Amino acid sequence: xIGLEHYLILSAIIFSIGLYGLMTLNNGIRLMMCIxxxxxxxxxxxxxxxxxxHDITGQVFALFxxxxxxxxxxxxxxxxxxxxxxxxDIELNEINILRW
Amino acid sequence: MLDDPGKALASISKLLPSNxxxxxxxxxxxxxxxxxxxxxxxxxxxxxLADIADPSNIEKIGLMLFTExxxxxxxxxxxxxxxxxxxxxxxxxxxxx
Amino acid sequence: MNIGDFAxxxxxxxxxxxxxxxxxxxxxxxxxxxxxxxxxxASFIISLLITINILQNPDxxxxxSVHWFAIFNLGILIDPLAxxxxxxxxxxxxxxxxxxxxxxxxxxxxxxxxxxxxxxxxAMLGVVLSDNILQMFIFWELVGLCSYLLIGxxxxxxxxxxxxxxxxxxxxxxxxxxxxxxxxxxxxxxxxFHGEVPEGVYLLQFSEMFNHIDxxxxxxxxxxxxxxxxxxxxxLLFFGGAIGKSGQFPLHVWLPDAMEGPTTVSALIHAxxxxxAGVYLVARTFPMFLSAPDALIIVAYLGxxxxxFAATMGLVMNDIKRVLAYSTVSQLGYMVLGLGMGAVVGLExxxxxxxxxxxxxxxxxxxxxxxxSVIHAIGTQDMRQMGGLLKAMPITAGTMLxxxxxxxxxxxxxxxxxxxxxxxxxxIIETAFVFGEYxxxxxxxxxxxxxxLLTSIYIFRLFFMTFTGKSRNNAKAHEAxxxxxxxxxxxAVFSLVFGALTLKPFIAFMERTFDNNVISxxxxxxxxxGNYDLVLEHGPEPLFILWLPVIVAVAxxxxxxxxxYKQVIDVSKVVSRENPVYKLLxxxxxxxxxxTELLATRIVYELISLSADYFxxxxxxxxxxxxxxxxxxxxxxxxxxxxxxxxxxVAAVVAGVGLLIILFRLIVExx
Lengths: 100, 97, 671
Fold this sequence. Notes:
The structure holds 3 protein chains of 3 kinds.
Chain A: H1 4-24, H2 28-53, H3 57-87
Helix pairs in contact in A: 1-2, 2-3
Chain B: H1 5-15, H2 20-39, H3 56-67, H4 70-90
Chain C: H1 9-24, H2 34-56, E1 62-69, E2 72-78, H3 80-103, H4 110-129, H5 133-151, H6 158-192, H7 206-211, H8 213-218, E3 220-223, E4 226-229, H9 230-246, H10 254-257, H11 263-272, H12 276-284, H13 286-291, H14 295-314, H15 320-340, H16 342-345, H17 348-378, H18 394-408, H19 420-439, H20 443-467, H21 482-511, H22 523-529, H23 543-566, H24 571-574, H25 580-586, H26 591-638, H27 646-670
Antiparallel strand pairs in C: 1-2, 3-4
Helix pairs in contact in C: 1-2, 1-4, 2-3, 3-4, 3-11, 3-17, 3-21, 4-5, 5-6, 6-9, 9-12, 11-17, 12-15, 12-17, 14-15, 14-20, 15-17, 15-19, 15-20, 17-18, 17-19, 17-21, 18-19, 18-20, 18-21, 19-20, 19-21, 19-23, 20-23
Keywords (chain A): Membrane, Oxidoreductase, Transmembrane, Transmembrane helix, Transport
InterPro entries (chain A): F420H2_dehydrogenase_subunit, NADH_UbQ_OxRdtase_chain4L/K, NUOK/Mnh_C1-like
Enzyme class (chain A): oxidoreductase
């Protein structure tokens, strides 16, 4: 039988995939996609809890998260555009003015 | 394949990540979360709701959205508005005098 | 209204004068000289009235004290000893201040001079009327400071600055011994009280100290295998302080160099007042010396040796002030010798020594002021360039003759005719004879007589070289202005008559110092503690012994007369670099070489200081710099964490969160 833990472990795996990508990738757009991945993993978590608790609040919360993810993606892409205009590439590892 | 060990090693090394530290941290994090999950007992039912095609789900969501969480709904609308304006501003063409 | 109520004004008025002159002196008439003179004059009048009061009833001494902190107090004690010192100090200081108005006429730094001498007078008066030894030490140090300031008055001259430094450091050696004595005294007294001092009892007051002499004598310490009583240690350490301040061997080296200061400073400080502070200290704590075995013998020997030693060096000096400086050291040796005679005559020794101190103040100040008058007129201090001043400066020559006769001790024994120096020096020499008679130790007596002979020779040498003969210089000598000659005449009068007037009553007066309403001691008991056999009544000396000092003085006059006036023998043959004895004396027994060059420069500086410096630089600095370097390299290493790339920060955050969760789980499980 599929229990709650399976959904939660799935969510954790997707989250860590997104996390690994966040820590490693150089390209800005790819980084945005990894952030989306992490958000979606959290949404899966929320919905799983909502299903197994027979409580609808989790799904309402999930709706909010989706909307927020969209807003954040919009802003993020606008920022990438601005960076591209200045530096002509979006290799985020090159932005290290605050280093030692 | 075995007569050229350099090429074999090179092809294998392409599979390894360029940043082993991050991989380690990620795996560590994953391990921690999974181990915590397995040990914990959540106060939930045994089975999810069986009927998937039940349209009252959407009804229930809509009801909840407009009664209990209406404030968050409105605020979210504002947030979306703000992000819209922000994205437009950040991404507009250069204004030259 | 008791005159004793004004006693606190005696040191206070000159101190106030110091402050006023220091700040406002420039704007006042003649460099602000009148305010110190007024203040010291007032102090003199108060001291004189107090002295007359105490003369009339000697067992009513003035004793006032206030609580200061812990178990110390501030107080005033005016007994016969203090009263005569106060009067002498303020009187001589007043005369020298008046003289200085004329002497320092052309000096631009007059306000500073008068301020500093005023402070000095205040400090010296403070030393005299302190009623506990801690307060005396504080004023003692202040006196040393003023001496430093005044010797280095013309500080632009490097020799003056060096002399001031030497004076301060040499007296400092004595002061350290004095302080050590105070500390050991305090510790011993505390022990005598078994750690609990009752309310209102101040440990370091003289009256308290003397009350516990028995207890102190009983305490013993073992030094280098010898059993020494605490009292002897304390007494000898106090005497160490006196050695420094009063210029006994070996700490006398600063006095001749102290002549770099103005002549009035030499007259005030190094003839009459500061150098007598050491003698005063020993006189003040005399009961302790009387109870300490062998302490007085050491005092006597050291004094006698210094008297002879300095007199030999005074013979060959060519600088007029240097001769007088060595003469001062020699006469101080006489005073210390007189104190040491207490081993046989008891308290009479204080009387004899203090009498010589006061007379010496008069004629030595007079000698210095006359020398100052000559220097003021001629412009040089070298006696080889003086001569024939008798006609040009009659008053100076006359007063200097009087002072020289006083110093050499001319007079007719058995009568009251004689200069004051005769009476006082004679008293010491006679006491030395009594000492020799009863303890069969003739060394102090021999030293005293030899020193008297040399004293006569060198002082008349000075007189003849300066005032008689052909004039060896071209300067137009003129007599000093009257503001300078009037003090000379006053001092000359005192040098002539003071001795004759006051010998016997003076000694009796001094003996009342330890027999009055504040301090009352049993002298015989103290003397038995110190294993001294006191001879309280001694018969008259044989006639020859009575006349011997006068014979010696006249012999010295004759020798100088023949050598320097008539020039019977050509002195220049003896006085030359070839003569080894002359070289020894002229180089002052190579003391400068030994003390400064060998001891200070080679041993202390090069051996100890430089090796300590090497150790410090190489070893300790390595450690200290090493700590700094380690910190910096650790910092350098740690800052590489800030790469500026956000993903690294994300990695750090996630790693931290994971670790936190693990730690939390572990702690929860353990607990």
